[in-house]
Amino acid sequence: MTASGEGHTAGTRHSTDVDAVIIGAGFSGLYMLHKVRNQLGLTARVFEAGGGVGGTWYWNRYPGARSDSDSYLYCYSFDEDLWQDWEWSERYPEQHEIRAYLEHVAERFDLYSDIQFDTRVTAATFDEATNTWNVTTDAGDSITARYLITGVGALSASNTPKFVGIHSFRGETYHTGRWPHEGVDFTGKRVAVIGSGASAVQAVPLIAEEARDLTVFQRTANYIVPANNGPVDPEVRRARKQDYAGIWQRVRQSNFGFELDFLEKGALEVPDEELERELMARWKEGGFGIWLGSYSDIFFVDEANAKVREFLHDRIREKVEDPETAELLIPKGHPFGCKRNPLDSGYFEAFNLPHVHLVDVKSNSIAEITPAGVKLEDGASYEFDAIVYATGFDAMTGPLNKIDIRGRGGQLLRDKWTEGPRTYLGLTSAGFPNLFTITGPQSPSVLSNMPVSIEQHVEFIAKIVGDMRDRGAETIEPTREAEDAWVAHNQELAEATLFPTADTWYMGANIPGKPRVFLPNLDFVGPYRARCDEIAANGYEGFTLTGSNQGAMA
To answer: Which of 24, 61, 181, 345 could form a disulfide with 29 if both were Cys (CB 3.0 to 4.6 A apart)?
Structure first.
């Protein structure tokens, strides 16, 4: 397959401007471009809405923004020299360091020449007569491609609640997902932070260092575990460098893309003293061990989950000096681990400062944003110089639904997904040939270390595209039956757990009117990878292919 449309089926293919259009220049888009262009020898164009590479890390520049995956795993593994050469400064790299890494990758693999920045894809329509995608952008581009590959990210469509009077505020307004690139100086200002999710947990301690007065408006308290960030011990660093193959084999076969495994026994099967000892060891170690590397029954049995909750409640009471504030910061009404589990670097301690305040807006909600600040339902009013909305994202489906993607018969993808996403493997959707959604809804994605899942999806897509080229197939898409089975499988997995009992963005519950379905996938990283490999080995079962020799693909 070439840009002119010549190749295995010369004379039958219609010409295209490029073989593949890739949307996004973050971890997904950069590696996809490398695979398609540098390894498969096809032509590609990447469209990126931002002014540089980075994806999530181009936009998320709020104070304290950093990865919550260990740096030696929050990176690519596909090139050992790249992995060995790059040195991270801390256990959890900050935004600017991750972006510098991705800039280095783009330069190292000569990717910049095929990336068009400051350009947002607005629409993509499948032409059934030519089996091509027609893609348009807000910069006036119109381009045709054989394949449309989205690397739009799971958390890139920022969400700001539609508060009454939101545009009336006379002060400064910011969203953590769209932070000014020049930074913000809060010195001497009265600041409100609305929200208490992962971005607020990272930002609040640093904003508190500058602001004259800081008020956090909390609707839902979160379970937050220590990051224990800092420089990595040189001996640990050296040992890791010597174990490249072992580390990545373990990670690819793991549950969540980390070197973490569940304990053999459940929380209900061990004495309380042993449970306390194991949890405390993981608490002191920091990171996701207490969540993804302790007791598996906490995801299935509320009684088991309650034991971990009690442990975490005690830790909050130890950290927060004022008992009333501590009780407000203790989560209620949802299990531990079924909401996004942020890592803490001084969040709880910030509320010990005299100029930092916590306001509960679950019992007394925000009535409106006023020209001067925030007014609650009971009439209480607060005045601010700046408001920071740490109100999260329209996760997973939101970024795709913002694009006018039309498949066979002109069907709009977001219309098809009105009752929730419908995919096969979280990667494809019936009626949308040659459309691939890297770490899309109903794939492990956000319940894994993202670069690990991204690499697996990119490599699987590249294998599909390469096999199609070799066999002369023109299109690939899932059957309705395979898609229905995957959607049902995905929900069955979730319903066997405690995840659906929590109002979370995993369930779409943070967006008014969004269907309540479980958006990620719980097959786990290793088994999901094995399933994709098996599907490919079995001639791409569950997929329909058109073109010559399509039945022989394997």
So the answer is: 24
Instruction: Tell me how far apart the alpha carbons of residues 396 and 439 are, in angstroms, rounded to a whole number.
Output: 9
User: Residue 21: what are its φ and ψ, rounded to 5°?
Assistant: -100, 130
Domain that holds residue 297: 254-339
User: pLDDT tens, 476-528?
Assistant: 999 999 999 999 999 999 999 998 988 876 776 666 777 778 888 899 999 99
pLDDT, position 8: 30
180 vs 81: CA distance, rounded Å:
34
d(CA 309, CA 299): 12
Examine the fold and report which residue of 301, 318, 339 is the final residue of a domain before the chain moves on.
339
Q: Which of 294, 319, 339 is the last residue of a domain?
A: 339
39 within domain boundaries: yes
Edge to edge, what strands does the sheet with 172-175 contain?
A: 172-175, 386-389, 190-194, 213-218, 356-360
pTM, two decimals, is 0.94
User: What does the pLDDT look like over 93-113, one tens digit per residue?
Assistant: 999 999 999 999 999 999 999
Q: Which of 415, 396, 416, 403 is nearest to 511 (CA)?
A: 396
Residues 215 and 350 in one domain: yes
Helix (H, G, I), strand (E, B) or coil at 86: coil
pLDDT on residue 505: 64
Task: Find the length of the chain.
Answer: 554
Verify that 463 and 522 share a domain, yes or no.
yes
- Residue 348 φ/ψ, nearest 5 degrees: -60, -40
Nearest 5 degrees, angle CA 418-CA 409-CA 462? Answer: 80
